[in-house]
């Protein structure tokens, strides 16, 4: 992993399989973009969790 890059948080084969089941194809950079969206979603949920003085991320934080 290159310095400053983040670990991919999604299972590429599962994502590709789901997209294929919907009769579409997956571009080579889609998995990375999806993972970045997941990071953003989680960062937002963590902020909300901390703002509510909790340490457990709950479904409502997402």
Features:
single chain; 62 residues; mainly alpha; 2 helices; 0% strand; elongated
What can you see in these coordinates?
The protein has a domain at 27-62. The protein has 62 residues and is mainly α. The radius of gyration is 15 Å and the shape is elongated. The longest helix is centred in the middle third of the chain and has 22 residues, at 30-51. 52% of the residues lie in helices and 0% in strands. The relative contact order is 0.13.
What are the SSEs and their pairings?
Layout: H1 12-21, H2 30-51
**Overall SS class:** mainly alpha
- The value of Rg in angstroms is 15 Å
Major beta-sheet overview: none
Enumerate the spans where pLDDT stays under 50 for 5 or more consecutive residues: none
Order of helices and strands: HH
Through-space gap between termini: 28 Å
Described by the principal axes of the CA atoms, the overall outline is elongated
């Amino acid at each position: 992993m290159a310095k400053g890059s983040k670990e991919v948080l999604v299972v590429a084969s599962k994502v590709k399989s789901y997209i294929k089941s919907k009769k579409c194809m997956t571009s080579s950079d889609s998995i990375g973009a999806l993972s970045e969206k997941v990071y953003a979603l989680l960062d937002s949920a963590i902020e909300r969790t901390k703002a509510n003085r909790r340490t457990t991320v709950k479904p409502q934080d997402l």
